[in-house]
Every structure is written in C-alpha cells, then in structure tokens.
Write a structure and sequence with these properties.
Length: about 200
Amino acid sequence: MPTAQVDETAELGDGTTVWELAQVREGARLGEGCIVGRGAYVGTGVKIGDRVKLQNYALVYEPAELGDGVFVGPAVVLTNDHNPRSVDPDGALKRGGDWEAVGVTVAEGASLGARSVCVAPVRVGRWAMVAAGAVVTRDVPDFALVAGVPARRIGWVGRAGVRLAERADAPGEWECPQSGTRYRESAAEDGTVTLAELPETDGAV
C-alpha cells in the first residue's frame, strides 16, 4: 500500500502484504505469506516467521520474535521494557541507548486475542491461546488457554484452536472435539503443568 512505511532494510518474504498506515522498521524480517494489517507496527529487528497475521493496529516492539503461523489480534501490544520510564532519575529524557530492551517470544501457531497485552520478558508457547483483553505477565505453556488480568490458565486448546475436553476414561488425557487428536497432561518436579500431543494410533489394541 502507498501509505505503508516499510524501511528499505526490512525483509519481506514472498506473498507478504503490508496494508495502509502500517510501519515496518529497520532490519525487521517477515517470512512468506504474512499479513500486516492497517496501522500495525513492527519494530526494529523484529523476527516474524511464515504465514503470520498481524491484525489492525497490533504493536510488535523489538526485540520480539514470532514463530510460523502466529495470530496477533487487533490492537494487541507486545511490550519491550519491564521498567518503563520517560526520564532518568535526574529528569533527563531517556533515549534508545538508555535502557535495555527485553522481548516477547510467541511460538509456532499461538494466538493472541484482541487487545491482549504481553508484558516482556515473556514467552507464549506453541499453539497456546491468549484470550481477548488478557494481560500476560508470565510464560504460557504450549497448548494453554489463558485469560484474565493477570492471565491464568483456564484450560487447554489443540492445534485447531478448540478447547480440549478431558477424557473420562483416561485420567490426564485430553481430546480435541473437532479433530479427535489426543493430548496428555503431566507435571514437572517444580509443579509446572504441561501438555503434549500424543501420536496417532491405527486403532489396534
């Protein structure tokens, strides 16, 4: 689009489109088949994989990294300063070199709902789902469904984005009602709960 601002040092993969009023800064790298919506912002050096959608007015500040197939909803914000100040303790205006940027990492297939905020440094796991309006302040496990302020896990989702149902006949196992794919829940020694996709079977017992 003529009104989009794409720096000449930014790299756009084949089939990637940037809509009006969007800005892609210096050294940003976007993979193939991405969509950058109206008014979206991609910061300096941000790395974005293939087939990523940035909806209207999404703000992706450096040094964020987004994996393949990530969805970033309208007006989502990925921050980059854990202790933001406009001025230093002496009252002088802070410049780019006066603080150290920290980034948000969003892994393959994850989705960030409209107006959600990810407070860096934080990682959103593979195929996770962040509800609209949520504020993510700690890492999100793979396949987790999180909501609220601050965001808390309220369930699990599969690759299809559908909330998983717990299997009554197999404690600790979950199933996607759309695809039939099964997942197993486990807990680490530190109490962290994770979910892993189970391999498909041929139906033999």
